Amino acid sequence: MAEQIKKFMYINRKAPYGTIYAWEALEVVLIGAAFEQDVSVTFMDDGVYQLVKGQDTSGIGMKNFSPTYAALGDFEITKIYVEKESLEERGLTLDDLQHLVWEDEDEDWAEKDSIRLVSRAELGDVLAGQDVLFNF
Amino acid sequence: MSMLHLVNKSPYENGNLNTASSIMQSGDVLLLLEDGVYGAVKKGKASAMLAGHTVSVLGPDLAARGISEDKLADGVTVIDYAGFVDLVEKNDKVQSWL
Questions:
Q1: Which of B12, B42, B63 has its CB closest to that of A56?
Q2: Runs of H (alpha helix) within A6-90
Q3: CATH number for the segment(s) A7-55+64-135
Q4: CA within 20 to 30 Å of A116's CA: A31, A123, B80, B95, which one?
Q5: pLDDT 10s digit of each residue in chain A, 136 long?
Q6: Which residues does chain A have within 8 Å of residue B67's beta carbon, measured at their own beta carbons?
């Protein structure tokens, strides 16, 4: 059977600690990356809260999994879409989010931004170009 | 007779904050906790629903979500778990908008 690379998109639409969705999504994304597929990740609606920097869960007795997002680049997950309208509605800007990067081995491991800020319309085009959509 | 209203869901995900804020009476207190704390962010659209109300927000839930206190809407009081207990004790009833 011929090896076939598919375009996998993981769509995150939930805040990080109120439900288990965000953490589970992160686990699934990392597992998916091991199968050498073309992986993209979207953060929209309350999902944009997952990337907010400075999370400190010591007061609520839950694991702070937010540092793991910084490791996505090491798993060759370099396309992270953040929806502009979702940020604006919540009073957030890119400066409120973690600065996620990946290293491009074709350019002497130059550090490049992983986050792509897109409008809802642009995101629609991105989703239309995917083979498989996973929703969390 | 005063009532403590609890909202623990994001105002951008469902209408619980909208319901609570529109049913609250004079003397009532609103406590935002868990994902409800997102409603207390000044620059967020949902903070408009807090106007005219006495609002507290649970500090440990803010910190977990990376929201610093300088981002909160004017007049919002940050409390800890002991403060939560005080609010429950001080009000006649507790209404949890689940």
A1: B63
A2: 21-33, 84-89
A3: 3.40.1260.10
A4: A31
A5: 557 889 999 999 999 999 999 999 999 999 888 888 899 999 999 999 999 999 999 999 999 999 999 999 999 999 999 999 999 999 999 999 999 999 999 999 999 999 999 999 999 999 999 999 999 9
A6: 52
